[in-house]
Give the backbone structure.
Amino acid sequence: MQFKITNELLEEVHAVIETANDEQVFAFFNEYHHADIADILEELSLEQATYVIKLLDSEKTSDVLIELDEDDRERILKNLSAKEIAEEIEELDTDDAADMIAELPEERQENVIAQIEDEEHAAEIKELLAYDEDTAGGLMAKELVKVNENWTVTQCVKEMREQAAEVTRVHSIYVVDDNNILKGRLSLKDLLVAPARGKIKDIYIPKVDYVYVDEDDEEVAKVMQKYDLEAIPVVDQEKHLLGRITIDDIVDVIKIEAEKDYQLAAGITQEVEADDSIFELTKARLPWLVLGLFGGLGSVFIMGGYEEALSTYKELFFFTPLIAAMAGNVGVQSSAIIVQGLANDVVKGSLLQRLLKEVGLSLINGIALGGLVIIFGYIMQYPASFTFTIAISMLCVIIIAALVGTFVPIILDKRGIDPAIATGPFITTSNDIFGIFLFFYIAKLMLGF
Amino acid sequence: MQFKITNELLEEVHAVIETANDEQVFAFFNEYHHADIADILEELSLEQATYVIKLLDSEKTSDVLIELDEDDRERILKNLSAKEIAEEIEELDTDDAADMIAELPEERQENVIAQIEDEEHAAEIKELLAYDEDTAGGLMAKELVKVNENWTVTQCVKEMREQAAEVTRVHSIYVVDDNNILKGRLSLKDLLVAPARGKIKDIYIPKVDYVYVDEDDEEVAKVMQKYDLEAIPVVDQEKHLLGRITIDDIVDVIKIEAEKDYQLAAGITQEVEADDSIFELTKARLPWLVLGLFGGLGSVFIMGGYEEALSTYKELFFFTPLIAAMAGNVGVQSSAIIVQGLANDVVKGSLLQRLLKEVGLSLINGIALGGLVIIFGYIMQYPASFTFTIAISMLCVIIIAALVGTFVPIILDKRGIDPAIATGPFITTSNDIFGIFLFFYIAKLMLGF
C-alpha cells in the first residue's frame, strides 16, 4: 500500500508532463496524496515542479508546498508572484502559513501578507510571525474551537459548528470567560447529554493542561508526551487563550531535536542532509575538523616536549593513538549519557554522587582494559615496568576523560548552554590533548626519564 | 502550571506516607495525574511505592505502572500477586497490557493471564504477545471502533456507542465487510447527515491508509508522520482488520530510535540511562572500549614496523594522534550524515555520484586543513619536504576516511543490517588503523626511509 518513488513512476511522471496537456497532468497528480506529490516534485526539475504547482488547486498545492524540503520550497516560491503565494497561504492553517512566510525574504513577506484577502487570517499570521520559532508561540496555530462559559448549550453548539468548519481536526473544545481567559475544557459527551438551556459554566471540566506562549518547544514536547496529549492550548501570562499546538507539530520537534543532537555528537554544526550541496556540507563540517586539527597540533607540541624519552622508551610514542582513542571514546560515552539524561530529566542526585559513580565506572573499565594491555605487553616481551606504566597511565587517562565527559555538559547545562555541543569532536579533541599530556606526565614520573 | 518534583513536595509525600493513614494517603495521591504519580514513585523506596500502588484504585495505578521506568515497574510487580497484576491488566488497553505482561518472567506471564477475568481481553492480549515488539503488531491495540459495511446508519450508531465505551479516544471509524476485511473509513460528519435507513456501504470513504501487521515499527512511524495520521489500522496479508496504532505510541518509537542511534554513535551498545547501575553501564560501554583498545594496539604494531624512521623523522610519530583524530572525525561525520540520510530516505542517486561527492568534499576539507598544517610546519621550521609529506598524506587519509564512513553504512544497509552500528567507535577505530597505516605508507614513499 505504501507509496514509493520508483523509476517506472518517474518515467510515467515525465511522460505525462511532457504532453503539456494541462488536463491530463492535473488528473494524474490529483490522484496522489499531497505528501506523495511533494516526494515526486523533489525528483523533478524546478521548471517542471513550478508547472505542476501552478496547475493544481491551491487547496492541494498549499499542502504540497508545506511538505517540501525547505530548499525546494524556497526555489519554487521564487518562481511564484506575491499574489500566487498569498493564494497558497489562504489555504493553510495559520501555523503553517506563518512558517512559510517566515522563510521568504523580508520585503517579500510584506508584499505577500498585503495580498492576503482574508484580513483576519493575515492579522493572525502577523501575530504568529512575532513569536520566536523555538517557542510554543512559534508552534501554535490560531485555529481552535473555543466557547464562552456564559453561553447556553444551544448557543455553544451553534457557534462550535461555525468554528469547527475552519479547524482541520477538533481535538478539544476550550472554555474561556468574557475576557478570553482559559477556564477549562469541554467534553463532547457532556455537551450532548446536557439540557439545551444549561450553561457551559455548569458542565465544563476546569482541569486543563496548557503551556505559556514563551515556553521552549522542547518543554512543550515533554509535557505533551508525558500526558499523552494530542493538543494543548497556549496562553499568555494572564492566561488569555492564544492558540493551540497539535501533536503532529510535536512529532517534528522531537525528530528535529534528536537529529540536531546526533549531528552535534558527530561534529556537524548545522542541520544538513546527505543531499545538500558540497558547499553547505563543508560549512557544517570544516569548523569541527579545524578544531580537531588544532588538538592534533597540540599533541605534536606535547610529544616534542618529551623527545628525550625517544631514545629509551620509543614504544611510549607508539601508544599515543591508543591513549588518544581511549580518552576520546570514554569521553564521548560519558558525555552522551549525561546529555541524554539531562534532556530526559533523569540526572538526579548530587554532583558528588555522580563523581563517585563515574570514577567507579572508569575504574572497572580501566582495570579491565589495563589487564588486556598487560597481556599484550607480556606477548610483546616489554619490560614489566614499561607495561605497567602504560596500563596505569591509561587508567588515569580513562578516569579523567570520564570526568571531563560528564562534567563539561553538566556545567554548560547549569549555565543555560545546550550541553549537546560538548559531545563528539569537542570532547574527543580536548580529551586527546589532556590524555596525551597526562600519559607522558605519568610515564615520566614512573619511568623517570 | 507544570508539575515539578521539588524537595518540598517530596518532604510532603514522605510526611503523608509516614502517617500510614490510608485515607489521607489515598486523598493525597488521588489529586495527581497518573504520569506525575509515576514521577513521585520513582523517588520513593520500593516499600513505599508498593504501598501506594496497592492503596490506589487499579484504574489509576495501571496507568501509573505503565508510566514507570521499566526497572522500577519490574521491582514493584515482583511485590504484587498474579491476581493483583491481573487486576491492573484488566484496566489497561490491550497494547499496554501486552507490553506489561511481556516484561514478566515467563511462568508468571501464564499465571497472570489465567487470572484475568475478562476472557476476551485475555485472548486479545495473548494474540498481541505473539507479535514481535518491533513490528506494527507489537505496537497495535485491539481497541478500535469498526462497523460493517452492510449495517444501516441506525444499527451503526448503536454498535458504535457500545464499542466507543471501551476505546479511550475515537480517532477513526473503520469499515469492514462480513469477513472483517478492511474496506475504508467513516467520517463522523457523513454518518450524522446520512438518512437513518441508509447503508454504511453507500457513505464510507474507501481511501484509507493502513499498515501490515509485520511492518517494521520505524516504517509505521514514517507513514504516520508523512501523512500526519493520528491513528492507523493494522491488517494482515488478506487485509483482515487486526488492530490500530495511535500517534502517542509512535512518538515513543521515534524517541527511542533516535536515542538508540545516538547511543550507538557514542559507543554504547544497549539502552542505558544516566541513573542505571554501574554494572549495567559497564556492560553497555566496555565492549566498544575493548574494540578501541584493539584498534590502538594495532596502531602500536604498525608504528613498530616503521621504527627505522625514528632516527631521521621522529616528528612523524608526533603526528600520529593528529592523523588518527582527523581520520576518526571525518569518518564519524560522513557516517552520521549517511545514517541519517538512510533513515530519512534522502540518500538518492547512484553510488558513483555519492563517491564523487565525498571525494570532492574531502578534497576541499583536506586542502583547507593541509594549508593549516603547512603554516604550522613553516612556524616550526620543519623541512618543506617533511611538511608537504604530512599535508599530502593527511589529505589522502581524509579522503579514505570519508569513503569508509560513507560506504560502510550503505553496504550494511543494503545487507539489511542497521547502518547505525557503523558510526562512532566502529568507524573511529577502523579509521584510526587505516589512517595511521596509510600515513606511514605515503610518508615512506615520499620521504624514502
